[in-house]
Amino acid sequence: MLALRAFMFDHVYLGPQAAPEHEKAHEVIAAIFGHLVERGDGADEIVDYIAGMTDRFALSYAESL
After folding, report:
1. Is the pLDDT of residue 15 over 90?
2. Got the DSSP string for the chain?
3. What is the pTM of this model?
4. CA atoms within 13 A on the CB side of 63
């Protein structure tokens, strides 16, 4: 089981083919974070709001900005 876990992290989750998706995720979260800061939300509110987002909602929210 540990060998499978190591393989998945090395070749799937953190592999080079995942890098573009990681970059996209960072951009989406940064855009949402920036919007919420500009809107005047507090730090705790922002963290809670972003932490509660699903992937689909975050992508949709970022597109609407």
Report:
1. no
2. -HHHHHHHIIIIISSGGGHHHHHHHHHHHHHHHHHHHHHT--HHHHHHHHHT--HHHHHHHHHH-
3. 0.78
4. 6
Nearest Cα to Cα of residue 61 among 4, 5, 46: 46
Q: Residues 28-58: pLDDT tens digits?
A: 999 999 999 999 999 999 999 999 999 999 9
Name the strand (E) or helix (H) holding 6.
Answer: helix 2-8
Which phi and psi angles does 41 have, rounded to 5°?
-70, 150
Residue listed under structure tokens 């090395």: 10
- How far is 17 from 14, CA to CA, in rounded Å? 8
Residues 53 and 35: their CA atoms lie apart, in Å, by 15
